[in-house]
Design a protein that fits this description.
Strand content: under 5%
Structural class: mainly alpha
Distance between the termini: 50 Å
CATH architecture of the largest domain: Alpha Horseshoe
Number of helices: 20
Order of helices and strands: EEHHEHEHEHHEEHHHHHHHHHHHHHH
Length: 528
């Protein structure tokens, strides 16, 4: 654990410097850059350079970060700092409860620069526009050069994505994904995709049916060590009013733990991941998902080693092609794609609201206290574990907010705050673009909308719910179904320009004027 001095907001561990003309450099390491191979450390000289890391209240309060999320970040940071110190590397580390902690990254960086007589700053490009602007401002105010380096954790650079996007009328994942497959050679044979098709999404939509999932493989859960337990006490003390609970905290916070999680996913869950990646089941949190996004986004795992393990599982006959391709598409395709969208369209992207949605986020998103079984389950596990899989996020919590007409920025802030894997570069486009369609189709080709019948088909939630997914009006009408038809009606003129929405609009047109009016009244009651 990084040593802590009483009443001192920074700790310096150093070795005797060599005589050199090289400027004194402070290497900035953020909470989602916990990788010894990070570009910022590529030419690190422990005799002359110093690493700077800081826990600050602002990063947990500019949006209300859940206890699970804050614990993941702080514990992983402390473990990484200890790892660097074990190598004999000098580290300046601010802890959240240090007596003179300024509470902001900018404030802590200012202090470190003053104490160390720094002559230059180095960092890997951060994953948050706000953080980049804040640290750039410090460098400018201090008159110091700031070397911002490419994040080599990713397969592509932002410049490469910008080149892909240039001149295209529409951006679509599928074309970018194919380029990435060709560039990397992953699941390729002689410039052609293995299996002679790029995408096996149609084979990855299975549900568990009435019999349920049966016996599931156990998820990887890591017992909190002394460092994590100290962070848990700190979070419960300093951020007691923040959402969620850490009573069942078990996320990987070291590279060694993350590697165990990777191995267990590949060996135990990947073979069934493809078929059941969209399925949901009441009370089942983990299913066949990887649970690796948090470790990937903290940089405890490199996506290259993750995809190499998945590809090897296919070639060994351990996992079918449709499962491996579906997993590859999420990391090599979607993950890289949303990062490109974020950095080529910020800061304006965060303010988009093309559907003019202005309703407040329902209070039950912070408590899980709702009669809707699917939402109660997804939100409950989110608050308990800081986790929900992608269909729960897109087609349950996200879908309800979209249909209700919630202000997209409020939805974004909720997702950024509650999930352990949420860093803004990946969360914001997924929320505003894919989930809420607030960018008007920049990222996705259509709004992902469905009635309660979709949830009934993909889960067993409706079986124990008091609402009927087949009903759109009346006391037992499913709110998803009511709001689905209301959404189509309210946005019909715009949606009519989208060829992928014509079938759903044809179904809308089969409703009588009286049915539409009744649905509109019930939808407004739900909003009220």
């Amino acid at each position: 654990m990084p040593p802590k001095l009483p009443n001192n907001s920074w700790v310096l561990i150093f070795k005797k410097p060599h005589m050199t003309n090289r400027p004194k450099r402070l290497v900035l390491i953020l909470g989602d850059q916990l990788d010894e191979d990070a570009s910022a450390l590529s030419d690190f000289d422990p005799a002359h350079d110093t690493i700077w890391m800081a826990e600050v209240r602002e990063e947990s309060t500019h949006i209300p970060s859940s206890k699970q999320r804050t614990t993941v970040f702080l514990s992983a940071m402390r473990h990484f700092a200890a790892q660097l110190q074990a190598r004999g590397w000098p580290v300046v580390y601010s802890q959240l409860d240090d007596a003179h902690n300024s509470g902001t990254l900018a404030g802590e960086l200012d202090k470190a620069i003053a104490n160390l007589e720094v002559q230059a700053l180095v960092m890997t490009a951060p994953g948050d526009w706000r953080v980049l602007q804040s640290l750039r401002a410090v460098a400018q105010q201090q008159g110091l050069p700031l070397d911002v380096r490419d994040d080599t954790h990713f397969f592509s650079t932002v410049r490469e994505f910008a080149a892909h996007a240039k001149g295209r009328k529409q951006l679509r994942l599928e074309y970018f994904y194919r380029e990435m497959r060709q560039k990397t050679g992953i699941l390729m044979a002689n410039q052609k995709p293995i299996g002679d098709q790029w995408n096996f999404d149609a084979d990855n939509r299975g549900s568990f049916g009435k019999q349920g999932p049966g016996q599931l493989p156990a998820p990887t859960r890591c017992a909190p060590d002394a460092i994590t337990q100290e962070v848990m006490r700190l979070v419960n003390d300093q951020l007691a009013h923040h959402p969620g609970s850490i009573a069942e905290f078990g996320w990987p916070v070291t590279r060694a733990q993350a590697l165990v999680a990777l191995d267990e996913f590949i060996t135990q869950r990947l073979p069934s991941f493809g078929l059941y990646q969209d399925a949901m089941c009441e009370g089942e949190v983990w299913l066949y998902h990887s649970h690796l996004s948090c470790a990937l986004n903290l940089k405890l795992l490199n996506p290259r080693e993750v995809l190499a393990a998945a590809e090897a599982a296919f070639h060994k006959g351990h996992a079918p092609l449709e499962a491996v391709e579906g997993f590859v598409r999420q990391i090599l395709g979607w993950r890289e794609y949303v990062r490109g969208i974020y950095w080529t369209h910020m800061p304006d992207y965060a303010e988009l609201n093309t559907q003019q949605a202005h309703e407040p986020l329902p209070e039950f998103y912070w408590t899980g206290d709702t009669e809707m079984a699917c939402l109660r389950d997804a939100i409950g596990q989110t608050l308990q574990h800081g986790y929900a899989h992608h269909i729960q996020r897109l087609m349950v919590t996200g879908l309800y907010a979209l249909l209700l007409g919630v202000a997209p920025k409020q939805v974004h802030q909720w997702y950024l705050g509650v999930y352990v894997d949420a860093v803004e570069w990946v969360e914001l486009p997924n929320t505003l673009g894919m989930s809420q369609f607030a960018d008007g189709g920049l990222m996705a080709s259509k709004p992902y909308i469905a009635s309660g019948k979709y949830i009934d088909r993909m889960s067993n939630h409706c079986k124990g719910c008091r609402f009927n997914p087949a009903e759109s009006t009346g006391a037992t009408a499913c709110p998803f179904t009511t709001l689905y038809w209301d959404y189509l009606h309210r946005h019909a003129d715009v949606l009519a320009k989208n060829p992928r929405m014509l079938m759903q609009l044809k179904n809308l047109n089969r409703l009588t004027p009286a049915q539409r009016e009744a649905i509109g009244v019930q939808a407004q009651t739900l909003r009220a």
